[in-house]
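Case study.
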Amino acid sequence: MPQSQDNALVRDIANRDYEYGFTTDIETEIIPRGLSEDVVRLISQKKGEPQWLLDFRLKAYRHWLTMEQPKWGHVDLPPIDYQAISYYADPRGRKRKDGPQEIDPELQKTFDKLGIPLNERLALSGVAVDAVMDSVSVKTTFKEKLAEKGIIFCSISEAVKDHPDLVRQYLGSVVPYRDNFFAALNSAVFSDGSFVYIPKGVRCPMELSTYFRINAINTGQFERTLIVCDDGGYVSYLEGCTAPMRDENQLHAAIVEIVVCQDAEVKYSTVQNWYPGDREGRGGVYNLVTKRGLLKGDRSKLSWTQVETGSAITWKYPSCVLKGDGSTAEFYSVAVTNNHQQADTGTKMVHLGRNTRSTIVSKGISAGRSQNSYRGLVRVAPNAEGSRNYSSCDSLLLGDTCGAHTFPYIDVNNDSSVVEHEATTSKISEDQLLYCNQRGIPPEEAVALIVNGYAKEVLNKLPMEFAVEAQKLLSVSLEGSVG
Amino acid sequence: MLQGGSHPLIDRHRADALALLEARGLPTRKVERYKYTDVGAMLEPDFGLNLSRLPLRFDPRSLYRCKVPGLGSTLHYVAGDMVEAPLEEDLLFVGPMTEFARRRPDMFSAYYNKVEGDSLAALNTMLVQDGLVIWVGKGHRAADLIQVVNLAVGSVPMMANRRQLIIMEEGAEASILSCNHSSTAQPHLATEVVEAFLGEGSRLQYYNVEDAAESASLLSTANFIQQGTSHLEYAAVTLSGGISRRTVNVSLEGEGADVAMSGLVVADGIQHVDNNLLVTHRAPGCHSDMLYKYVLDGSSTEAFAGKVLVCQGAQQTDSQQTNANLCVSPQAHMYTQPMLEIYADDVKCNHGSTVGQLDDAALFYMAQRGVGPEEGRLLLQQAFAWDVVLRIGLQPLRQRLMRMVEERFRHGTSACGDCGMCGVRKI
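After joint prediction, the assembly is written out as follows.
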């Protein structure tokens, strides 16, 4: 893109606010607020689930009751009233009786507004989409085309019905319900999410994408995503999310589980743009997510790329367990916080197999009164001989009232592995700013340019469709924090 | 009993310390800063306390000849927590806390127990009977190195509660070497609290050498409070010992204060060394620099945590932190955690941490030139460790430490002098 056009784009975007903050006026079936065994049974019943899944939910719920909300993060998470949330909201509720095939035009309009192609004829560049609003998957596109290759891409509710053995085998195998407080909560009340299965030796011909949208008031989003990539398979998966602007905080506690078998490769990209709250810190989504991939087979590969610009509080660590010998994991992250946002995010790389490799590149940008922390763990087990990790965490500070923090944990338990970590924190260099200003680029644009350049290393890892959106988001998020 | 061998100005802090200890309890491994050291297990043995202040049965001065050649140091022996008679000049005092509290009660009260510590510091405050005060008056330069020899003594398992209070007035200069030795094979535990106040423009070199027995345990907390343009050079060298937990907190409170911290740990067997550092930049224009290196052999478990905290308003902060670790045994474990917590924007902070092995290419290069693999490995390990030793400002001490480090690598012991009392780590 020529320079002038690029600047115009940045300027244009910088004048916009959170643009996905609208609500959709649609009839939604919401169950009463509160959480109890009956609610768990009700959700399971509404989704027509088999007994084993209900048992799984109940075990998780009973375990959750014994746990306490964690406090160790570098975020100020107020106590959450779990009884004030409704755990199931179905925007198609009333429609289903007439026939689930047609999408409510209101829903269609909502996703059109969000730029999500639900209509396969209009879909650009062949991205298959699973659109999830509140607790229900609204539509999954290109299902049939993918099925020709044996790829299963559907909502997890459908997968439970159509492929129960696969779901039963892998659900909770990477993130058990005992894993943490929010994982237990999600395991008890998870609603919808995507299920992907890539058969042996199949390269998924298109990007798979799930779009999450919270719409209903006083609800939480508890989706669950399960991706299984069998031997020699490949898939690139994208996840996007938005929510309306509301003064109340909304809870999002999801689980993403990924299983990567021998010689398989999974790319998971997230552009997280939940509503971050207003300038005074009112409202916004609490994004408390457990994401983990198990590199089960030898020479398997998993790559997490995330652009985090939204949410009032983000507290998540997309992780990799490198179990297969010679497996490779990557984590690329840009986390932007502005106004009163708080983020404590990073990754965990647990090296169990021999000759495993991991790379962590994290870029934090803090502005306004926000707090942005990188927290990461690299653990090399005694048997993970010849393992290698390289981590690089950079933080950029825009303004003297924000904070940027780095908390890496490195545990090495053998003498043949090499682990390197480096981190820097600084503000935008005066020299670079001066250079831009001298050439007629005003300060705000110069900062946007420098920030985009700074994040380029991560943005380059995103699939093209997302890279453009992510670049736009970066500029929007930093609006008003400069000059 | 405790009050018998002490001073009322020390005694009056005991009740508050007990209350704090009761309120907080001893740190468990669930407490972030104590994640890698089991304090409960360290305190478990039935240790005795020298409450009745029984005198030593030997003269440490004749047995331990710790003088470093070329340094002209003054030696001060601390056996358990018993401190020798003071050395006193117009603007210098090195001697027992009880004596200093008697002579300068106002000054003692102004500085003693003024830094809020954690429950381990409170345990020390509650039990300490005597300690060492080093006071350097305004503008005075202590010409000789002040060498403090801490000896663990006793024919039964003993616990010593040591304390150092260092007061550097405006423009004062001093060099202190504090070394730990064991003269007993019995399990022994030392709790240690160092409180150091560096006035405007003062300069302090503080070195710590640990060359103790495997039966030794150390719980040390050091707090350095630095005023404007003061300079602190801190180095901690652990060559042998049992379980050591060292907490060092540096607070840069005045503009332009500067701290350089270095640490070297050479560990083998089941040795455990846990260095936990916190440098807080409270004022603008301060500089901090940390270099810690570990060489791990045997099945040693080592931990390093270093945090740089830049408070709001501490602009123009410049901070570097490096932790490099060499694992030479498959059973060794290294836990490292370099941290940055920053609330100001005009700062330049970075940290780096590595865990790795000796360079095969360098070993091969040496083998080609006739240096065998064993010797090559020793040379590389030494070179790795000397990076830290070379930062030590006092040249004679630097040379002595280089020799000790070499001996430690070659022979597993690190006798510092000629008296033959050291290197008794396996007694």
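Observations recorded in class. The first strand of chain A starts at residue 29 and ends at 30. Chain A is about 25% helix and 35% strand. We will return to this complex in the next lecture.
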